[in-house]
What does this fold into?
Amino acid sequence: MYGEVVEGIEPHVFEDALTEIKAARGVALDTDLTADDLKELTATFKALANEALGGEWTSDPREQLHRAVNAVFASWLNPRAEFYRRANGISRNLGTAVNVQQMVFGNRGETSATGVCFSRNPSTGAKELYGEFLTNAQGEDVVAGIRTPRELSEMEEVLPEAFHDLLATMDKLELHNKDMQDMEFTIEDRKLYMLQTRNGKRTAAAAVKTAVDMVAEGLITKEEALLRIEPSQLDALLHPGIDPEHIAPVIVKGLPASPGAAVGALSFSADDAAERGGRGEKVILVRFETTPDDIHGVMVSQGVLTAHGGMTSHAAVVARGMGITCVAGATGIKIDPKGETVTIGDATFGKTDTVTLNGSTGEVFAGALPLVPPALNEDFETVGKWADAVRTLGVRANAENFEDASKARELGAEGIGLARTEHMFMVADRLPAVREMILAENEEERAAALAKILPMQQADFEEIFTAMKGLPVTVRLLDPPLHEFLPNLVEQSLLVQKLELTGAPADQIAAERITLAQVNRLHEQNPMLGTRGCRLAMLYPSIPDMQARAIIKAALAVLEKEGETVGVEIMIPLVSWESELRIQREIVTKAVEDEFAKAGKSLPYTIGTMIEIPRAALTADQIANQADFFSFGTNDLTQTGIGISRDDAELGFLGEYVEDEVIEKNPFESLDQEGVGQLVKMGVEKGRQTKPGLKTGVCGEHGGDPDSIDFFHRAGLSYVSCSPFRVPIARLAAARAALKNK
Ligand code: PEP
Ligand code: MG
It folds into this structure.
């Protein structure tokens, strides 16, 4: 290890020599070699090392120690550390530290041993014995997977005093640290030494269960429990499992190393997995054993399957930490990494074959098994309730159909913060009517197209309002980047040319030419900064008129049918000037009042705006004159505030910026608090100067990001709105923000 880690000699140099001498002696295990064999091997190692280094390597212990210390510091900048930090949002500027400890030996015969253990089960959270050990071994042997370690419970028989000492020490360490501990120990001649303890990495399920259990045990308070669970981790709990009704046979079984279900095509190297997974392909990484160098492949895989290694092997620990399904130590598989195949029983699988992993049972199946939504348990509900009791920030969801809205409500959303109406238009059978509306040559044509769309919109709204009855729903009026609805300019030009060249019927050519002319007329260089949002509504007032009518008709219909409806909030997007909002407000109010008059009924409603253009934030005091509420569109506010295209930047320079630490985080993922955040703060303050207590929300993607949520809490916003599956994360993050900023 010194030669490899400190001197940088290829590990196979030593491995090969070791394998050779074991073969020569006819033994399988390192520990079967005699003292004389080891003496001989040591001489060989020294010769090989000198050869590799091109000189005499130092045998001065002080010099070796210094070199070892330097190697630890140098490891801070190795590619795997860089990758890990990037994946976990850790700055490279933090630096690292080195501990120097006296050595104890677990390989002094059968009365010595080494192992790893947890004070609770890190997969499930259950308070039970969890760990592995090996007699006559050093720590590296346990994690390297060369010898298969034994279950900790078996240690009671082999080394009873040390075993009971260990149990008592585990309890003590857990009590002292008030958290689940992950420990390494060595036993030298029956005496127990603790090498290390730290708060254990755990699955989301275990995080929730241990937190709830520890509150019940009186070890921690509810507030501490909430601070203990990483919000982003909850994601894993919300992922699907394998349909229990399935009848597929198990082809091989390994250890249930990281829970959840994963379906994907096989990949045989981390680089291949990184490449294919990065492209969006669903892959399962199959390895004899994973090492930290595989981390980039593990991260983008659906799941990991290994032939070797225990529950505490690297693959298992990394996958659990990342919430990636893992089946480890499936000894029944034979991998041919060069040929890129794996043989399980009589069957051989290659890169194009799909398998399903059950990380909760260790089972592996051929093909893609059906998955079912996760069953959320009582502990999860308990934590959610605790979070709701301490948070001051509201949590709503972004949803625009019945399923998503219902899901959001089930997960604890207190309303819909953003229903994007253009998403309702991006449905194949509706597109023709939407195109007609956009391409209409005159108001008459447009009115005809809108008449077709109104009932569809009304039906959409009725669905959402039914799912959310009793809660507020913010419906945003149309905000389409026009190009998303239109034929592509280049393709349409090519089509016309092709028709001309192939002598297509004249009327067909004429029709396509008209479309081309229309597309050309509406073509914009920067559609994201073009005729979007209220700008389109300013040009064509009949669009907001239709939408307002559809909303009110739907609300009245749901009230009639269900005896209850939603809090109707109509939102105008992409406003820059107060005058835009004043004009749009008039159009919407007129349509709404007209529908009330026709129905002979009315209901409460409000009209607000999105703040997603810097000018709107800067003039929020004026805009507030016309608005009953604000909702910050932090996606567009990031785009326009920083001056970067949300369509292009992430694929272009922004990724490099994050990689090179020019900036800390992708501002589309986590709010740029120093820059764009100022616009949000100013918007809230100025808005409330005009209207004290003005309701302010956030509906950009940042509404589901824990760090951003902390900022929104501090900025005094009323609520965040995020995608349905992020609602539990947002509830917990909001509670933690309240606790941290008390
Ligand atoms: C936003 O800009 O943050 C927003 C929610 O609107 P959209 O993403 O639809 O532009
Ligand atoms: Mg927007």
